[in-house]
Amino acid sequence: MTPFPDRAVAEALALATDLFSRLAAATADPPGITRASFGEGEGEAHRILAEAGRRLGMEVTTDAIGTLRMVLPGRDRALPAVAMGSHLDSVPHGGNFDGAAGVVIGLAIAAALREAGRTPQRDLLVLGIRAEEMCWFPAHYLGSRALFGLLPRDAPDTLRRVDTGRTLAEHMAEQGLDPTPIREGRGLLDPARIAYFIEPHIEQGPVLVEEGLPVAVVSGIRGSLRYPLARAHGVHAHAGAVPRRHRRDAAMATVALIAALDERWSRLEASGADLVCTTGILATDPAHHTSTKIPGVLRFSLDIRSLDASLLAELDAWLRAEAARLGAARGVTFDFGPPTHAAPAPMDPGLRTLLMLSASQAGVPVREMASGAGHDAATFAGLGIPTVMLFLRNEHGSHNPDEALEMADVGAGLAVLVPAVSELLG
Q1: Residue range 226-261, pLDDT digits in tens
Q2: pLDDT above 80: residue 2
Q3: Which CATH architecture has domain 6-222+344-425?
Q4: Phi/psi at 373 (nearest 5 deg)?
Q5: Is the confidence at residue 5, as pLDDT, over 90?
Q6: Whole-number percent of the chain with pLDDT over 90
Q7: How do the domains of the chain map onto residue ranges?
Q8: Which residues make up each annotated binding site for Zn(2+)?
Q9: SS3 for the chain, per residue?
Q10: What pLDDT sits at residue 358?
Q11: Where does Zn(2+) 1 bind (predicted)?
Q12: pLDDT (tens digit, 9 = 90+) per residue, 132-161?
């Protein structure tokens, strides 16, 4: 890979630093920032980065559903582009870097190319994608799936934002956007026009901080098996008067099921399986619960993720069998409710090798790791587009105001990505 002048990478880092500062100031919502999907904060982030793209001499457009497209033209416009980017929405009172880092770094790479006086063979397309965070609308990868015509056609009129109760179509119209392509099932970007997709993103866990590494190449995005609306049904009864053999305790039965899942997870992990399991909701009904009552109903959620689709299917079957066994033993029935599934998305081996080689040549310490969180990159990979992600070290996790991406680690990411992207651009 051809090295870049130090001044070009320095120019890229200076632009990234400035853009992060502008985004934080414009979308501040103490504590943290808020950029609601198809809301004012997300719109303001799009405006700031669109203006930055124009200053770089890029072709800047926004499509009907709100995707920001910024193109650094190549010499042969007929060739499919190298695409980079991520989402620009956030959770309420979140951090400044989740999602935004991918778009900012894409622009920073365009700045490095311009500073070095290099015109690529093919276009560099930087995408600002709408609505990735599920906390606003209950649909995974909403913006990237809409971009390729993959959303259900009724989504504009059936999806409602959780904080307002208003439909996706209403929020889009408020931002001057048009849901018609979604209703028609019409994609606005042809996958054949994208040669590669690269999504830089902060790591959302503690691994890179723990290991003292600035970056990681993502091996794949874990698929998920989720039951967000599960319930256990037993019988309410007096806490002191009912002996164990007569109890139909929904809470105890659910705890036993979760303990069995935890034990199975431990064994599978010890054997080398990639797996994480979470119970994020565990609640008795506040209209009925009291410290002197055996709970007859308990609401809970299960979130099981792995890079191995067959393992997810195996666990789903095991979970149902174990629930039936425990339910029969304890006089309780389990209703898991409607599931949501996302398939695992392995990253492209050739692109992973390219980023690892680039890191080695730049002297940047690196490792490979799976992504436990979902990302828009999964949509691109699912369409057969060669896709890769680069994680940047970030303290304090994400989805909170304390995200702490150091600009030195952005610099390390640029040292890896600038020559690698330049190689792909030709």
Answers
A1: 999 999 999 999 999 999 999 999 999 999 999 999
A2: no
A3: 3-Layer(aba) Sandwich (3.40)
A4: -90, 155
A5: no
A6: 96
A7: 6-222+344-425, 223-342
A8: 87, 98, 133, 201, 399
A9: CCCCCHHHHHHHHHHHHHHHHHHHHHCECCCCECCCCCCHHHHHHHHHHHHHHHHCCCEEEECCCCCEEEEECCCCCCCCEEEEEEECCCCCCECCCCCHHHHHHHHHHHHHHHHCCCCCCCCEEEEEECCCCCCCCCCCCHHHHHHCCCCCCCHHHHCECCCCCCEHHHHHHHCCCCCHHHHCCCCCCCHHHEEEEEEEEECCCCHHHHHCCCEEEEEEECEEEEEEEEEEECCCEECCCCCHHHCCCHHHHHHHHHHHHHHHHHHHHHCCCCCEEECCCEEECCCCCCCCEECCEEEEEEEEEECCHHHHHHHHHHHHHHHHHHHHHHCCEEECCCCEEECCEECCHHHHHHHHHHHHHHCCCEEEEEECCCCCHHHHHHCCCCEEEEEECCECCCCCCCCECCHHHHHHHHHHHHHHHHHHHC
A10: 97
A11: 87, 98, 201
A12: 999 999 898 999 999 999 999 999 999 999
Q: Which CATH code fits 223-342?
A: 3.30.70.360
| Amino acid in the structure at residue 72 | L
pLDDT at 246: 96
**Taking all residues of the chain, what is their mean pLDDT, rounded to a whole number?**
97
Q: Say how far apart CA 146 and CA 139 lie, in whole Å.
A: 11
pLDDT of 360 higher than 90: yes
The CA distance from 274 to 265, in Å, is 10
13-17, 119-123, 340-344, 412-416: segment of lowest average pLDDT = 340-344
- Binding-site annotation, residues: 87, 98, 133, 201, 399
